[in-house]
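>> received
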Amino acid sequence: MAGQTMAGLRKWFREEQEKLSGMTRARKLTYIWDYYKLWIIGILAGAALVTGLAWRISHNIPDCWLYVVFANTRAEAGNGSALWNEFTEAEGYDLTEKRVEFDDSAYFDYTKNQARGNRYYEVFVALADAGVIDAVTMEPDSLAALGRSGRLLDLHAPICDDIRERWQDRLIWYQPEEGEAIPVGIDVSDSLLITRYHLYEDGCGLGIGVESRNLDNVERFLSFILEEE
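>> returned
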């Protein structure tokens, strides 16, 4: 089926080249516009949408104290949930100045075909690469696999010294094909995310977005869910 499709496309392309070869430049432009204007408009609209989304994401970064993605859970963990209310109240964030954003709508597993074609993962990548996502939680094995994507901060980085040293006995490691294992998360399987809020059943890990600018607030969130001062 795929071979027939490619053969058909090649035939169509040759036919279009033959039609255009005998036309003047003005006639070519008119022909292309008449027959392909919907495609052209669609491509331009798509490019404008991506550009606009990137602009909005980049300009919204300063508006968040903390942005956490709770992936692969069906429990309520978004804005206005018990978790969100209790955390923002306990930490005393001024929500008139910046937001605390909890997103519980993502479902993806990097162990399955590297999450290719999963729209939730594509959104996660866009937000992570733009520096919006500060942390993501999911099952420990899935989190370790996600480290392969390069979207989780290597906790060996100097900016992670405090977090790594404070929770060094909880590190989740990703083993690349070559070289040493890399710490990409914190195991929080005994945290409030499970014991009180029941987000996961079989363990939970937290990874930090590679472009996060709010590591101090990630540390405050870890302290809250682990009930540490």
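>> The chain has a mean pLDDT of 84.
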